[in-house]
Amino acid sequence: MDQLEMLREDLSQCDEILLNMLLLRSHIIERIMACKEANKLPMLEPLQEEMLEKWLEKSLEGKRHRKELREVYDAILRCGRKIQAGRVFDYNIVLIGFMGAGKSTVSSLLSSAFAMERVEMDEVIAAREAMSISDIFETRGEEYFRSAETSLLIEMQSKKNVVISCGGGVPLRERNVAEMKKNGKVVLLTAKPETVLERVKEEHVRPIIEDHKSVEFIAELMADRREKYEAAADIMIATDGKSALDICNELVDQLMKAQTEVKNGTEN
Ligand code: S3P
User: Fold this and answer.
1) What is the DSSP secondary structure assignment for residue 242, as one 8-state letter?
2) pLDDT by residue (tens digit) across 184-225?
3) Which residues contact 181 (CB under 8 A, 6 or more apart)?
4) Across all residues in the chain, what is the average pLDDT?
5) Helix, strand, coil percentages in the chain from 3-state DSSP, rounded to 5
6) How would you classify residue 182: left for phi > 0, otherwise alpha for psi between -120 and 50, otherwise beta?
7) Pocket-forming residues, ligand 1, beta carbon under 6 Å
8) Closest residue by Cα to residue 177 from 59, 96, 58, 80
9) Phi, psi at residue 64, to the nearest 5°?
10) What was the pLDDT predicted at 266?
């Protein structure tokens, strides 16, 4: 019995050390972020993550309970990413822009880097309706699809720290813009018509351009939409020739700057 008591005592000491280390880890992450901000360094550094990943795999190699411990460590890493996200964005990030502007690619990287929930509006609507976007357009009509978009945006208002990747037509309805702004910062991704064509030419999921895959058509539709896109945006990022990582870092940087400006503005 005495031995059991001693083991329990050892275990609680272990837990205390673990907890203190985790608190320290969180604190260090916050300091790293502050340091990057002060020195204008990019927030996202995949190389660091890769190094950590290698170290982790090597350190756990051949160890008992490797799989379980790996899961614990993954949770610790996720927690670190969430701490970073919480420091940077206390709201949803709403990505808008023309088809092929890079919304899904950016939302995917952003959500994994900051352990944020990701909502691909097209995917959610297609799953709920149990049919592809092209079939929804064909059988129910565009208006029906646009109303589904509005409802989904309203649903997202109760959340924060979600990356919402909107279908290209979402900001065209004034009501949608009002709804997305209620708990989100709107980021407009832009791309030249040539870039868009290059990105979408092999895909067949966009009924609006399916039979019009030319630079002229894309340029014309883009010009028609530009004013509405720009009016909806809190920040804008041109994506041509940039990697997803560059775009995400630019996005974080611009959002943080905008936040600081708002803060300074309210303090003055
Ligand atoms: C549309 C864009 C598509 C999809 C639908 C309509 C549009 O989304 O919502 O085909 O009107 O621009 P992506 O921008 O994700 O391709």
Assistant:
1) -
2) 999 999 999 999 999 999 999 899 999 999 999 999 999 999
3) 232
4) 94
5) 65, 10, 25
6) alpha
7) 99, 103, 122, 133, 167-169, 206-208
8) 96
9) -70, 150
10) 65
Cα distance between residue 66 and residue 222, in whole Å: 52
Note the pTM of the prediction, 2 decimals: 0.91
For ligand 1, atom 8: residue with the closest CA: 167
The neighbour count for residue 247, using CB atoms within 10 Å, is: 20
Q: How far, in Å, from the CA of 208 to the mean position of ligand 1?
A: 8
Mutate to test the pocket of ligand 1, among 118, 196, 200, 206 (most ligand atoms within 8 A of CB): 206
- Tokens for 56, please give them: 């982790």
Q: Which residues pair with 184 in a beta bridge?
A: 92
Provide the token pair at 34: 């502050």
Of 121, 131, 142, the residue nearest 207 (C-alpha) = 142
Torsion of CA 153, 158, 160, 165, to 10 degrees: -10
SS3 240: coil
Q: What is the model's pLDDT at position 260?
A: 79
Alpha helices in 39-62, H assignment, sequence order: 46-60
The two structure tokens encoding residue 254: 């611009």
Ligand 1 centroid to residue 122 C-alpha, Å = 7
* Six token digits for residue 150: 């509005």
